[in-house]
Design goal:
Length: 168
């Protein structure tokens, strides 16, 4: 049985990881739509999470579209797509995963941009990693993967193998 994890949980945990690793959050794009909490509620949850972590918060960081997270430091820029794991069927999860990968790839604008895919760590995602996210693609596009497991983000560089869920 998959562990249900909202996209908002993934987004918040990833931003916390970025800030703790000396990245500045420049922009956040919150998902809206059917079955999701109202965008204003999600923004409030993000504000509360930032305050709880003593992270700088500016409501101007919210953007209506684009990468879910844009972060910058002296090392460059991150553009990260986040995806939670809902109650849907396996085919829905595969479709959502494919769309998340396509979104991340659409942010590739320069070879120095670090792309990221932040996901709930669950066996469905692992199944899709092995079949839908070849290591060669991750290396060629500098695509990092961030897995959220039990409240902790585990980052994987493009050259690192992604372990089976539960092994992080």
């Amino acid at each position: 049985m998959p562990i249900l994890t909202s996209e908002l949980e993934v987004l918040i945990a990833t931003t916390v990881w970025l800030v703790r690793n000396d990245w500045n959050i420049e922009a956040i794009s919150v998902a809206g739509g059917y079955g999701l909490p109202p965008v204003d509620y999600q923004k409030e949850d993000i504000r509360k999470a930032f305050n709880a972590e003593s992270m700088p918060f500016d409501k101007k960081m919210f953007k209506p579209r684009g990468p879910d997270i844009v972060a910058r430091s002296h090392e460059g820029i991150w553009k990260i797509e986040c995806k939670g794991l809902g109650k849907g069927r396996a085919s829905t999860h595969r479709n959502n995963f494919d769309r998340a990968v396509a979104s991340a790839m659409s942010y590739f604008d320069t070879p120095s941009t670090r792309l990221g895919l932040a996901l709930a760590n669950d066996y469905l995602w692992a199944y899709n990693f092995s079949e839908r996210l070849p290591q060669a693609l991750r290396k060629a596009t500098n695509l990092w993967v961030f897995l959220l497991e039990k409240g902790t983000i585990y980052p994987y560089e493009p050259t690192e193998e992604i372990p089976f869920p539960g092994a992080a």
